[in-house]
Design goal:
The chain is built from four helices and seven strands, in the order E-H-H-E-E-E-H-E-H-E-E. The chain has a single domain, classed as Gcn5-related N-acetyltransferase (GNAT) (Aminopeptidase), CATH 3.40.630. 27% of the residues are buried. It is globular and about 40 Å long. The protein is α+β, with helices and mostly antiparallel strands.
């Protein structure tokens, strides 16, 4: 557990660090720089409402220990990506980042969070089960490179 971790909304200055984190993780969703820039700029009112959060230890390298990206659709959210740096894994960062996101959804009167995860990604699936997500189905062949099923999860917010 890292006690001095702070969770906050991401901003454009976090872009490079967020991209490094996701590129270092095999299981993360891999986005282009343009996709990250569009999400962090929020300049297009027609663009989907996406938000990103980061976990950091203020004033200490590497700075950002994890990030989470989610997409809001009415009162529901889709968790699109959650990544924790290799050096910070198994220290509670992912759990605390996910908890901070769930509290944000609750504060925004969100009704549910949905996500898909690779069937083989047991650490992520364990994290979601611990956070009270329910398995709601399997999407056959959802992922490519390598081709793999996705397990869909849902958490109702009360």
């Amino acid at each position: 557990m890292v006690p001095s971790v702070r969770f906050r909304f991401a901003h454009a200055g976090d872009l490079d660090a967020m991209m490094v984190l996701e590129q270092q993780s095999e299981t993360a969703a891999h986005w282009s720089r343009a996709q990250y820039e569009a999400m962090l700029s929020k300049g297009d009112p027609q663009a989907p409402e996406r938000s990103a959060w980061v976990a950091e230890v203020p004033g200490e390298p590497p700075g950002i220990l994890g990030c989470l990206i989610a997409h809001k659709i009415d009162a529901e959210w889709e968790l699109e990506n959650i990544v924790v740096s290799g050096s910070a894994r198994r220290r509670g960062i992912g759990t605390r980042l996910l908890d901070a996101f769930i509290e944000h959804v609750r504060a925004e009167d969100g009704s549910a969070i949905f996500l898909e995860v690779r069937e083989s990604n047991q650490p992520a699936r364990s994290l979601y089960r611990k956070a009270s997500f329910e398995e709601i189905g399997v999407r056959q062949g959802y992922y490519s490179a390598p081709r793999e099923n996705a397990v869909a999860y849902r958490r109702l917010i009360s």
